[in-house]
Design brief:
Elements: E1 2-5, H1 10-13, E2 37-39, E3 57-58, E4 65-67, E5 70-71, E6 77-82, E7 89-109, E8 115-116, H2 147-157, E9 189-193, E10 199-209, E11 215-221, H3 232-243, H4 248-256, E12 276-281, E13 291-295, E14 316-321, H5 322-327, H6 329-357, H7 365-383, H8 389-400, H9 423-438, H10 440-448, H11 455-466, H12 472-484, E15 500-503, E16 506-508, E17 531-532, E18 537-555, E19 559-565
Length: 566
Amino acid sequence: MGSQRTTSTAAYLATWTLALSLAACGGGGGSAPVSNTAKGTPTASSPSNVAADGKLHAACQACSAADDSTYSGSCAGIWQAINPSASALDVPVSIKGLSGQNVTLVFTNESTSTQTMSSIALSANRSASIMRAQSQVAASPVTSESPTLAAIRDFNYQGWTSLATNQVAAIARYSTNGATTTSYRIGDTRTFNYADNSPRTTTLAQTATTSDGTVVNLWVESGELGATKISPQIVTSLITQDAQAGGIYHMLVRVGGPLYGPNSQSSLIDGTHQPIDLVVMNFDNNGQPYGLLGYFWALNDFKKGAGELAYSNESISLYLDSETLYLGGTYGMNQMLTTMVHESMHMQNFYRRSVQMGAQYAFEPWLEEMSAMMMEDWASGTIVPGYNTIRDARFVTYMTYAGHGSYNCGLTTWTPYSTDCESYAVNGSFGGYLNRRFGMSFYQPLLTNKNHTASIDILNEVIGNAQAGATAPSMLRDFAAAASGLVPLSTNVAGFSLPARSENCFTLPAIDPTSLYNGVTRDLPGAVPATLAVPGTFPVVRSRVSGTYSEAVRVPVGATLSVVVD
């Protein structure tokens, strides 16, 4: 559980002004488009009820798929063919009525194992892909995940259980577990251990109290305090955005409940009246911003003990990189604020799912990270007006990663910054699609579902409750068709777009695959993968087709072929 980011979007974020005033409802954010907006409880209508018979069928309503073989009008048309057999299937595709439209074939593996991809011509892929605008600032891409971050994630997922002792009796569930809470005053010093176990002397720079009475302490590594480093302005910005009414803490609690509290684990620190500690440290002293921005490490929720527990800070705390804050300018501050949302969700998930429900209910890493990015999606426009982490970062990366996009990337396999797959981009973008399609009435039950322990079963159930018969793979199919097929937002094709949504004091901006930042458009793969990831997708483009498009397309076992014309 941590946040690792680069400067690839710095150019267009650097001019944004940080907003310090938020209404109790979370106001103060930028405005969202007034059209293409879903409000309140989502409808349960399905845009497609495609028969699983191996044949191509129209898959959208109120669109340009007039029937199973005819394109008519000027909207997008979507067709789908589901392979129900135990072997690869040749699907004859024949769609008439085209007059220069692009045809995008999107393969989606909906089975539970990787599937062999057959050869298919990609000659049109590059001609249909406009490379990134030259005005976009180039940045050195991250080539691997921080080992520190990966180790923290593993600990928060299941590693912590090896340090947990026998639970106290259920009757003592709401006791203080025999611990006390120490009070500090501004100017006091305290030693916090960094993730590498190095002790750092910090100074309490400021405190605040949230609307529910929780104390938030902001600690800064003592050598990092000063007008040219962590200035009083940075201190005030951080603690205000976190603790004020409508701020980060308030939004997290309103959506998902307490970040920490009473528990039956005798090895954990006091479950009552715990402050939240925001600890600003110079993570690596390399004189550069970004990289590892912040983390939540559940080790610090434990009482001190022997071995690894000797390094517990006995603190409900987030850790933030100081150099990003004072060397990254406005962009660095904005990224740190969204990082605080992300890490606070990890903090909350650990308490809600691992501690209260039980270790077996912890989200697997792919869903843990996805849930945190979905909360960033809901909150980012409030704390950084005009900015949305999914629209402006994750989705752009999904469409352009490493010059070929991050398409054939298994949703349930966590492989961030790998050669062909960037899991933050894939899972964040898909989470943004689910947020816009189903809303908060989907997201909140996802956080609290206790009917299953396997994360894919949890996600499938919550999706099925939002739309009868739908599953995570079927939603990924529709998302991939919308994104890879560049379905214009303006066409309003139900289920195949990412419209704006406004509800419960939160606003999500629309995401239009045809209108990415600064004229950027998707990059496409230059080679067919040997296998199709599970659940994963792969796009192929046929450019500017007129008359009738005809092609026999081999669809792998357990996969669906989506054909998008626009």
